[in-house]
Structure formats: structure tokens, C-alpha cells
Amino acid sequence: MNSFAQRLKKLIGERTVSAFARQVGMNESLIRKYLSGSEPSISKAAQIADKTNSSLYWLATGLGCQADTIDQVDDKVLQSALSIVQEVARNREIPMDNPKLMKLVFVLYQHLYIRRQSDGFIDLRKAVVVARRMANEENL
């Protein structure tokens, strides 16, 4: 979804604009203005995201996951994070039982989960670069 208006329409779903406006605590005319292509302030976008349990990052950019929380583990993303961390550990001769590696898997998983594309695509080349940078920050 390329525009804020498209993402807002998705959040509204089958409800009326009036009902949605009440849910998020805004005037119906303001919601209609956003649906017509106006961009909200950060505080207004945050208010919409908060009241709809949506990710502000997704609402603002269209990237990542619509939901504000991760309700379940995405096996593909977890496997990607684990494989990348294993590769980093192997290249640096770090034993896999190092507790910092588990933290690295967790942080990389969150990073990949948020930044995956709507079709599930994960840019593994960028992910490896991110993992190496994270490993450097953890002195691994």
C-alpha cells in the first residue's frame, strides 16, 4: 500500500468513516481529509495507530507489519535470523552457546520482522550487514 490514505482505508475496513472517527477520537471531516490525500501530523498518525492497535511505522510508511505487536512467531523470519547469526558466529569462531548470540538472534528477528515486505520477502544481504554491525556493537 503506497499511500497513507490507502492504509487508512484498510484500517477503516467495513465501518463507516463516522464510526472510525469516533473510535480514534477525531473529527469525521479530518479523517475524510486524510482519505482525500492529506498527510497527518505525527501526533495524529500516532493517535490513529494507538487507537487501532496498529504499528505507527506501518501506518506512516507502509513497511513492516500492520499489527503493533507480534502475536506469533514468523518461522521464516526466525529461521533467517538464526541462520544469519550462525554464519556470523562461524566466521568469527564464536561458540554458539555464547549468550550474546541469543540476544543477537532476538534483536535481528525483530529487525527482520518489522522490515519484511508485505509478501514476506526479506533482503538477506542487508540482514547480514545488519547482523555484522550488531555483532560488532556487542563486541562479538
UniProtKB/TrEMBL annotation:
One GO molecular-function annotation for this sequence? DNA binding
Name used for this protein in its record: HTH cro/C1-type domain-containing protein
Q: HTH cro/C1-type domain: from which residue to which, for each copy?
A: 16-59
PROSITE patterns per UniProt? HTH_CROC1 (PS50943)
Instruction: Tell me which domain of life the UniProt entry assigns to the organism this sequence originates from.
Output: Bacteria
Leader sequence residues: none
Tell me what organism the protein belongs to: Gynuella sunshinyii YC6258
